[in-house]
């Protein structure tokens, strides 16, 4: 109670959030604990004793006050995949923006889900902590008077899927630190459980919302339910055209909402998640259990696509924005005509893999990111030299060999940018941009050229924060840079991110107005070269 009172007192002085919007308080204790997701004992990362962690339930514009106490023996951070942290990248929870929480200490995140709806998740961003748990679902409901383009479901479930290793996160980290690649995962989990370890209860004739997020380390997964259709209704904060699918490819880092109607004979049915684009298909199952079930599951689990690229590409192109539906505000999503805006800059990003000093590294435009001892955002705020330099990564592929640097690319506030992800490798890639939602305007095979703009979807492309790039292919996005800050653009293939396939986008303005960017939080942790500095007086 005292802790909550202290939070309330501190927030009352904290001018960055709006008094009329509700506050939701969370007190989380992060600990190690024994978990057995694949039948063997592992050291997991638990939040309030839970694996996965507790869901965050919120409504558009809510202020989320999340006090995180780190009871681990190592530093820890949480990041909020898809939460845009408007004007406030200090709270993003990646090492480029936020100092880690030391062992035995706490930090209170002060977030606002400003002008957002939809399905997202949080995860531990340091080291290989993500391989031990510490993740959970985030749902942002529409405000009561904002219309939603489907009836209220009879139930609402978080479904966290992902590949998984039996090895502890420390073992996986040591493997990467020795310059090696990670082996093939040992299994796939649904909500932290292995085969048939989780079930979802439904009543015949009723409709349920499933919020599916791929929180794994590497692999795209195909999700399906035996004899049931998945009606897609929302992707990472965008209401979509309501297309029904027999199965859905969910690439690592992505989130989808589907409606499932219990319209089959009353029994149990398999829920299946299986790896895509892998030589060995790894599969797990859960159960959809009718309340009046007359029997167990029957037959084998339904099969799904395995290595077919065109199948996945065609499905991705079919996912489009519902232009007449409201988003977080009453006006239709289609009222923002992104296709009529002239782009001010084109950025082309190409990944590569190779050896540096005899160790495996990954890069974007030949630069393999190395984290300094000071978060970039703090160095920027306090004008600390020697931490990073703007322009340390090119906005075009250089064609040279991989080298190490603290890569920061600058772009102007309020510019409208085209970013092309060029994938010359033979694996599916997945990229995420913190702080933003972008329009996925095109994707196809081969090398991108300006002529490919003729095939862009400039009307109803889906807006999201994580996109896939198929092997030997490209994906193009449009993004309005309306959120000042230091924002992480990374591979969601976590070993690649850890070994350098990321950089920071510095969205810059000379303005010092709080209308453009909030000042540093009063409770910000300080580390590295920022130690001994001062935030702001209470």
Automatic annotation (TrEMBL):
Entry keywords, A to Z: Glycoprotein, Signal
All copies of domain Plastocyanin-like, residue ranges: 30-143, 156-293, 373-510
Domain of life: Eukaryota
Molecular function GO terms recorded: copper ion binding; oxidoreductase activity
Gene3D superfamilies from the UniProt entry: Cupredoxins - blue copper proteins (2.60.40.420)
Endpoints of the signal sequence: 1-19
InterPro entries associated with the record: Cu-oxidase-like_N (IPR011707), Cu-oxidase_2nd (IPR001117), Cu-oxidase_C (IPR011706), Cu-oxidase_fam (IPR045087), Cupredoxin (IPR008972), CuRO_2_AO-like (IPR034271), CuRO_3_AO-like (IPR034275)
Keyword tRNA-binding: no
Annotated family: Belongs to the multicopper oxidase family.
PANTHER family found in the cross-reference section: MULTI-COPPER OXIDASE, OS04G0561900 PROTEIN
Protein name: L-ascorbate oxidase homolog
Organism in which the protein naturally occurs: Lupinus angustifolius
